[in-house]
User: What shape does this take?
Amino acid sequence: MMFYKDQILFGAAYYDEYMPYDRIDTDFKMMKDAGMNVIRIAESTWSTWEIEDGVFDFTKLHKMLTKANEYGLKVIIGTPTYAIPSWLAKKYPEVLAVTASGRHLYGHRQLTDITNPDYLRYAERIIRRLMEECRGYDNIIGVQLDNETRSAGAASEATQALFVAQMMKKYPDIEDFNQAFGLDYWSNRISRWEDFPDVRGTINGSLSAAYKYFLRNVITEFLEWQSKIVREYLTDDQFITHNFDFSWIDYSYGIQPEVNQQDAARCMDVAGVDIYHLSQDRFDGSTIAFGGSVGRSLKKDNYLVLETQAQGRANWVPYPGQLRLAAYSHLASGADSVMYWHWHSIHNSFETYWKGILSHDLKPNEIYNELSAFGREMRSIESHLINLTKSPSVAILVDNRSLTGLNEFPCDDTDPNTPDYNKILRTFCDALYKLNIEYDLVYKDDPIEKYTLVLVPALYSATEDTIARLKAYVQGGGHLLATFKSFVADEEIKVYHDLQPHNMTDCLGLSYQLFTIPRDVTITIDGNSYPAQGFMELVTAAEADSIACYEHPIWKKYSALTAHKYGEGTAYYLATLLGHDGSTALLRHILPECGISIPKNLYPLIIKSGINQLGRKVTYMFNYSTAKISGQISCSGRDLLSKKVYTEGDPFEIEALDLMIVEE
Amino acid sequence: MMFYKDQILFGAAYYDEYMPYDRIDTDFKMMKDAGMNVIRIAESTWSTWEIEDGVFDFTKLHKMLTKANEYGLKVIIGTPTYAIPSWLAKKYPEVLAVTASGRHLYGHRQLTDITNPDYLRYAERIIRRLMEECRGYDNIIGVQLDNETRSAGAASEATQALFVAQMMKKYPDIEDFNQAFGLDYWSNRISRWEDFPDVRGTINGSLSAAYKYFLRNVITEFLEWQSKIVREYLTDDQFITHNFDFSWIDYSYGIQPEVNQQDAARCMDVAGVDIYHLSQDRFDGSTIAFGGSVGRSLKKDNYLVLETQAQGRANWVPYPGQLRLAAYSHLASGADSVMYWHWHSIHNSFETYWKGILSHDLKPNEIYNELSAFGREMRSIESHLINLTKSPSVAILVDNRSLTGLNEFPCDDTDPNTPDYNKILRTFCDALYKLNIEYDLVYKDDPIEKYTLVLVPALYSATEDTIARLKAYVQGGGHLLATFKSFVADEEIKVYHDLQPHNMTDCLGLSYQLFTIPRDVTITIDGNSYPAQGFMELVTAAEADSIACYEHPIWKKYSALTAHKYGEGTAYYLATLLGHDGSTALLRHILPECGISIPKNLYPLIIKSGINQLGRKVTYMFNYSTAKISGQISCSGRDLLSKKVYTEGDPFEIEALDLMIVEE
Amino acid sequence: MMFYKDQILFGAAYYDEYMPYDRIDTDFKMMKDAGMNVIRIAESTWSTWEIEDGVFDFTKLHKMLTKANEYGLKVIIGTPTYAIPSWLAKKYPEVLAVTASGRHLYGHRQLTDITNPDYLRYAERIIRRLMEECRGYDNIIGVQLDNETRSAGAASEATQALFVAQMMKKYPDIEDFNQAFGLDYWSNRISRWEDFPDVRGTINGSLSAAYKYFLRNVITEFLEWQSKIVREYLTDDQFITHNFDFSWIDYSYGIQPEVNQQDAARCMDVAGVDIYHLSQDRFDGSTIAFGGSVGRSLKKDNYLVLETQAQGRANWVPYPGQLRLAAYSHLASGADSVMYWHWHSIHNSFETYWKGILSHDLKPNEIYNELSAFGREMRSIESHLINLTKSPSVAILVDNRSLTGLNEFPCDDTDPNTPDYNKILRTFCDALYKLNIEYDLVYKDDPIEKYTLVLVPALYSATEDTIARLKAYVQGGGHLLATFKSFVADEEIKVYHDLQPHNMTDCLGLSYQLFTIPRDVTITIDGNSYPAQGFMELVTAAEADSIACYEHPIWKKYSALTAHKYGEGTAYYLATLLGHDGSTALLRHILPECGISIPKNLYPLIIKSGINQLGRKVTYMFNYSTAKISGQISCSGRDLLSKKVYTEGDPFEIEALDLMIVEE
Assistant: This one.
């Protein structure tokens, strides 16, 4: 077991190089006082280490490492490759990616063409130099590769040539390529690879999706390449990680479309995630739970929260109590670290108002005080919390090809607000979450047999193999809930040319030929009526039971929600999007049929559980509201915080923004 | 009379080259079973025929033509010039148009610079080769030139040089040019043609409008050039056509700003149009009627509907009955064809979800079934329906220079929602339509004497000649209804420098010097009050009768609606925009004064009529609502569908989304 | 005293070169009849004077000057440098500025790179030639340099090199530069000036702000350079001016972010401004008052209104009476001129519908008639109105560095509607205005001792020196009202790293560490509750009196509004933005405490006053409403318009859109 498994990692990103004056002792002492044990450094410091081409200065690195050691702080080192120095861009303009809008200007991070040989040569040199400098520091526990890696939409001639080479390899016969991508359309077909159209101008959704897939693989290969370099310098007890982030709508929302995170994580020892969430009255823990499910999914193990907000943006400043609640929420999802971005608020540049633990005055404040209290409390019980083993009975199948497919071919291409993949996904995630049903996320090649219910939202791109596996799962007794826009297209986002849902008509017991956009359409589940939203398939349930039909003068003969016995299992199908309330009603209807019981206490009382290192079940009970909650407890054991012992059925009370952690 | 005049053309665009597998026999048999008799092929197939520069393969063409013949299907061949092969763009990058945003990337259709000599040379070769291959196929009834031709905003140096050459020719004295365009302003004047400013940067609305006019002429010349090539290969009973489309706001909305369609149609034998309309609860037939008026206007004859939707976009999927009603609606407007885009839904690329008759499963479905029923029914009575002669008593004058003028100089340049030309136009079209008053569209040089009423909406650019013709029309007993923003500027969009409306103050009996944007202003017509919208001229009706003044504390002394006897006729003027209800009230007030009576039965009961080939009056009565309509019939004759005989005044009933076709 | 001080300048911009035919005698006679005495000419006429490179034709200039003299019209000559001829751009493409979007296309005005040597050489030649031609015309009273000068975002390599040179000079040690701008962040630091990053791509708000500051200085230097050239040709009684404009939200809204107007005005004799304001029901005089405060601030003297609207845009067409009221409103603010843009409405190009006094028909109209009446009336009393000396007791400190700072670092960067600098500024200006408290604007180096109250809205960038001066002002007995987002950052927009508000915690008696965005937060002032808007600092009023705290379940312990005795004076602090009503309540609370009494008669009755040349107090009383106002008068004297004599307390009545001018 590696070091970090012994203690919960609690700390922050630290940038000595950004400090307006030397205060490293002050800072590290404050950290230590707060129970912190780790800093994350160096991930955007290339120009600090390599001040000119080949001229290096690692003074600040050594200072940070030495001082950290002095104060008992462990260190995670980031390779500094995601933000390049100005001199590199001046010398090799081609290191900046070219997109349909031309070449990026220097300035922003993550604009590098990570396929560019000059960039890679310089990146390798700085990584190796940094790793060499890091040798011998025992307090370095791990290395983070790059930072929220992006491909910058790279589409230079050279990058496109790599793509074409892959296409040539995949399609030895160019006619197969034309056919797979439907290039006859609008005269886009080619008969020689030299005539390959510039992907930047393409109107072919399959080609565009294939290029995005290629770019996701570029990231996987880039991180793997970095991992091999870094690995040369590491001891066995030092880990490699990366901070994976999410799709973004002012907070961490859905799966990251630009990275195949599971693939990218293969070269790593432990997965790291960046979770930013709503706050104040909109703080509900749903994004922490979602991000945790992503974190657990990548290595099928516990994960690190490498970044989360302290103060964050102005509208995120937490209410007193919310930071503590958020920190425990991460642990309850299986995180073994809570690390903030960042220690101090920066005085210049882009993220001046993405505030850290300390405000610009660099003094203790309410944020620091709350975290210190949490740190002391957590340390006293951490052996009961660390390395929690989680076993949800529900899995949700997520898929980046389908996400891309729905971007290329939206539900309603006339409506800018048409539901996208992550909207559909999160609707289910959040409905489960608020029903206190924990869920795993799985990818198409992951085993699913252990789950009682597998949700398949909008699996637009479904290979024959995936379809076969899902059918086998149901046949073997599993429960499947698939939605509209699933099983539509193949790997290349070409729509299947037989009855939809492709190859699932037998399993689901239904088919459809037409679909439309609902206007004033509702469906009724268990006596309550909910609006159909964004898209509706006009399903004929030939063999399935119709749980609900559309309520509409014309469309009423079509099914909206069905159930079908198939082999030993049951396959449910939802042909339209429901809102949060409708989705909740749907799950309340289906879950008990699958044998999954819904707890009595529901949101704002959130329950999360797992087995700790001592083999005991730990049940977190969070109160996300700003009012006290009381009820009857549904587990037995001792509250690690109050030390009070409960037996199932006992009354309990939780103060506003407070929690209990009941250990069996 | 050419072949297609014997039968109503009923069919679809067919793309064998897009099919996922060979199924041409299945498809053509299904078409034949549905009463279809025509396919439209080849319009975007350049890369299929010419796989490399000079390497041709017409296998699929011959297969389609031979099979079509076998199944009794006629064929309209499209020249494949609107979508170029990738190899052509690689070889001659200049074939892609340059605009203010730079050169277009390859991929999308209609981005070619159709003035480019290399493009034209290659286009001529593929047209000639295609025409040669088509020789000897008796079932080819006509050729469509290109497809919805665009100029792609072409503004390369070479294209601009053509424009400047035309300006030099039109303005031999450069001072006249400076004066006509007001180039003294902001130092834009030139004293040598070499200093001609780049039109891409111009802020001169007249210059910008002149360039758009030039680009419209480029399209006219391009189609004429194609027609001459194609004509060399045609027999006398093969026609030339083109599918003209419309301005677009999620459906076919107004006249097409980028093409002078009447000019462009001059080289053709029959006009074709592409009509896409709203559906489901928003299906009202107004766009079919508008598109039909455009279709009839181009050659002053019947026209072809070369494209209309089957399923179309997701929000267009028709209610049962709407496709049949739409098909008859086209015929009732004078169409001699109803052709769908397209037979099958495509499995890849840009229009995957612009669905055809068949869904992606390529199986019969409800859409196909409804069209089959229509096909059989229509064939049984087509000799009574075909080649209908229409004679509306109302004409609306439309003008692309005025449309451009209002784009360059909007009613309110601070309001992105300020009414544009087509909004003003369609307001009148749709008010007439729902009052069951059919209308023709006319262009500025068309004869207007035969009409009882001529509407002139927003004729911003009005030449002296047009003004003189309109005045002569009124003087000779005609009725004119002109609106605000008419008679403002000359051909070059220079505002006239005398009293407005220019040279019409005598005819209209009024003038104005000021205009503004209404806020909380209403006008009252026949006792009901309607909001003034978007723009209002502060009209002093010196000699005209003021039908309505503005209701506003300050503007109340100005007229909003006037009538003026002039010679034998009457000239009405509307100084502001009214909504649908206000426009309807206005027409209800004016039409009877012009001697045009408004039918008793009104929308959702729509009446359209004409004289058929047998010389008998045919009156279509459509029920566009989803409820039954009953009333007293206003014509006499036999319903061709039910075979029931009616005498004027008899009661009638029409089911939801059903119709009667009463032949005298 | 120069000529223009003897008479109020009343006239319009005149463009003989835009006229559709020769009508100069007609126009000048109409002007003279209207009491006008001045025209402004030539500011965008380069291509008219210099028809080709080095070929000049000043015929129209001499015609205008000669004719103007004949009709007794004075002339202000504009240097024609803000709109370049096409031939110049063809010959030297580099004269057009380069921005992040590439090089501007020729066409629009103000796109020139005013640092470009070729441009400057040609500009100097045309200015000198024009000045030579103007010699000997006694009726030329002044010269306007350029027109609403802009730097066009110039960022060519050459322009950026000038910027870098200035940075090198300011920061001899490049490490200081890195530190001041926080360039370590995201690897942006440089160790050699040759590696200076392209500012067009920067994400560093300090760097971006410094470049904007540089560009503002470019304008100052450009105007100074022009002034030196022009000055060589002027006699002592000819003045130099410039028409300074404002930030724009469909009208003149706030201070102009692209020009340091006070600096730029240093080389001038008299300040000129362009004031465009709302009209009709939204006409309230607030923008005229604001613009007047700007005008007075530039030279601490009376100013010229060089442009204001006659008809203007369609939605500005004034109600009868509004033009006269507006004209007197300018005079009451200390303007010595009222000049319209422009005499006649233009028949082509960009500003066809920015209408002048005359409509396109060039005939007398209601606008002309109202202005004529005003002209005659004003002339009869002008010696009592001209050269008014104003002495408000309130000053507002404005600062372009802070404006830029808040643009780079908005209150809420997730909200596109987050309040910007000018919004915050105008909220206070307009609240004061409607309370009939006149105000001066001051800049950071202006003396403030004479004011009873100094308002400091959002002084985001505050140097130590400014802070010290404000503290001294309070200590000496002054009253300060500062707001949120003041005293945050230094000159380079680097946030201070000590307790906020920086160095003002003692003076204000408070501090804060956290801030957030209010949601459902109110504050109560004198019994009424007002919403907190856009931003709120969580202030702990250690020593200050808390006038109001936030009304919110969580934030209630923090102060929103405080007062603190400091030395002899009082410092108020407002930690959030209030709307108009809240700001008014705040001022009603504070002003009396400062010893400033609020008049009884308030908006729509507006009172403005000053001392005229005769040493008598003149009090304007405007009725901005469309209803009659009556009340008791608060001053004594004779109404110059009605000649009626009033004693304080007498009843008075003012008709809708009318006024009184009471001279003591």
